[in-house]
Amino acid sequence: MTPSESAVSVDGLVKHFGTTRAVDGLDLEVATGSVHGVLGPNGAGKTTAIRMLATLLRPDAGRATVFGHDVVTAADEVRSRVSMTGQFASVDEDLTGRENLILLGRLWGHTRQAAKARAADLLEAFGLTEAAGRQVKTYSGGMRRRIDIAASIVVTPDLIFLDEPTTGLDPRSRNQVWEIVRALVAAGTTVLLTTQYLDEADQLAERISVIDHGKVIAEGTSSQLKASVGTGALHVRLLDPQQRGQAERLLATALAEPIRLEADPAALSATVSDPRRVSYALSELADAGVEIANFALGQPSLDEVFLTLTGRPAEDQSVDRPDGEPPSAPTTEEVRA
Amino acid sequence: MSVTSQPTATPETVARGAVESVLAVGARPARPSGLAASLTFWWRAMLKIKHVPEQLFDVTMFPVMFLLMFTYLFGGALAGSTGAYLQEVLPGILVMTVAMITMYTGLTLNRDIQKGVHDRFRSLPIWRPSTLVGPLLADGVRYTLASAVILGLGLVLGFRPEAGVGGVVAAIGLLLVFCFSLSWIWTALGIVMRSEQALMGVSMMVLFPLTFVSNVFVPPETLPSWLEAFVNVNPITLLVTAMRGLIHGHAVAGEIGTVLVVSAGLIVLFGPLTMLVYRRKA
Question: In degrees rounded to 5, what are phi and psi of residue B3?
């Protein structure tokens, strides 16, 4: 890929915090106009990587360019073309939604009048007109996320970083954020999105990079990724935990896959590469008189992706913030400088 | 009267089409000048005062408390009468009160960093010091307000500036210059310190001795010689002396000059230091 086609080009990026290697030789290419998902557990280095790309954090080694501009030596060029939304780039909670948007409009160089008009349009589009005059600290989680995104597009960016845009949101608010992301793409903005949910990356992203310990461990389209980890996972819960041994043997034969025994003594699961085998396996259980309380065939979870790619579950790698604060909020991903 | 409710669009929803259309017209204006960006941050600080008026408590109630307390507590003992003491102690309390609120910008900066607001500002293509200069200018409003409260109450209690309005305005001007310079210490610390409480603690540890161990309340001649030596070089003492001179019409150019040199020194030292730690953080 030539630099002109890449919105983001990252080569061997490294960032340490003390002895923690938060980002450890990250490589990434994001095509202009695409949605790229960065998938990883807490503390995998997602936020640190994005902070470096957004010129907020200086890399210790490696190189990153955004639309061909180096994030260290041409930071202002990068800043004028990107925007970000996430746990680390928020709005002023003491100010109202409208004031926040006017403030940012003014900082981008709009006249007072133009900034006001732009704020009104954004509030309208994001369904926040009624809440416009209230302090942001009174907003619900979903409203908060929408004002954060609105604040990022006061001037339409060429590239937007969305750092875990739906973590902690209810399904309805999550769908709204997804709609906004789709609108961004339709308007021609390149989106780099981090997430802990394969489901979300699958819904939105054309390409997905799975990262672990600050490195990319797998990359591809959603279907490539799923092909490598199986199309989904079968979860079975038995009525009688005594029958689990028998069920394990039957499923192992019918699915020809390794069966995992869950912590729940009545539950088993398996990664499935061919969904057609599932109905056969379930009827085998019924024929043998193993009664099923429920079963589910779902997309592989981040855990299952990790289990397949790394041979271990996606443990939470987050460390205490170096500034002594406990990693309290559920959305707090990792150390910040 | 209508009983059927209008089928209005629910205000809480996001319309994808509407989002696309605002994105289509999000043109990029020319970059604002450093001054325009600073003034925008000044406006933000004013909005915060509007939304959280409690933060003005420090600049309104404290000066009243200090002035009444110290005038009537020490006046009789130290100057023979509260009236005579007030003439000398008021400029000192002015300095003490305003010096105490110089750490506001540092505190706000620290909070902005903790909350992530600062990162959004840093990711904008604006003149970087504007995030600091704007709030420091807003502090000027706080300083002026605190000064007005003290002077107003002082006049009621019998404070009579011998040099008249001109002298008082000049003295306040000098105070603003010094405190603007002093604030840069707290902005540097605001970036480095891990929490607001830590910053508050450190600033109090510096400001309390600095303001009390000075000539604000007592003439330095009455102190043990080692303490007098410290008091005589304390920048607060220099400032109070210069302000008393301006207010009561016996100003000495050298005294004012010294304060200006100290102020310039603070900016030369802590201005770049602030910008250095600010960039380091990046």
Answer: -100, -20
Would you call B55 an interface residue with chain A, using a CB distance cutoff of 8 Å?
Answer: no
Provide the terminal-to-terminal Cα distance of chain A, rounded to the nearest Å: 32
What tokens were used for A250? 């039957």
ipTM exceeding the 0.85 mark = no
Q: Which of A261, A276, A269, A275 lies closest to A231 in space, CA to CA?
A: A275
pTM summary value: 0.80
Binding-face residues of A in 187-206 toward B, CB within 8 A: 187, 189
Query: What domains can you pick out in chain A, each with its CATH number?
Result: 6-227 (3.40.50.300), 230-310 (3.30.70.100)
Residues 33-52 of A with CB under 8 A from B: 51
Beta carbons of A149 and A126 less than 8 angstroms apart: yes
- Between chains, do A114 and B29 touch, taking CB under 8 Å as contact? yes
**Which of B23, B40, B112 has the CB atom closest to A156's CB atom?**
B23
User: Nearest Cβ partner of A93 from B15, B17, B115?
Assistant: B115
Is B122 touching A (CB cutoff 8 A)?
yes
- Reading chain A (337 residues) residue by residue, the pLDDT tens digits are 444 578 999 999 999 988 888 899 999 999 999 999 998 888 888 889 998 998 888 899 999 999 999 999 998 899 989 998 887 668 999 999 999 999 999 999 999 999 999 999 999 999 899 999 999 999 998 899 899 999 999 999 999 999 998 888 888 888 888 988 999 988 889 999 999 888 888 888 999 999 988 889 888 888 787 777 666 778 899 999 999 999 999 988 888 888 888 888 899 888 787 778 888 888 888 898 888 888 888 776 666 777 777 766 665 554 433 333 333 333 333 333 3
Q: Kindly state the helix (H) or strand (E) to which residue A212 belongs, with its residue range.
A: strand A207-212
Chain B neighbors of A103, CB-CB under 8 A: 40, 43-44
Are A155 and B19 a contacting pair at CB < 8 A? no
CA distance A265 to A293: 13
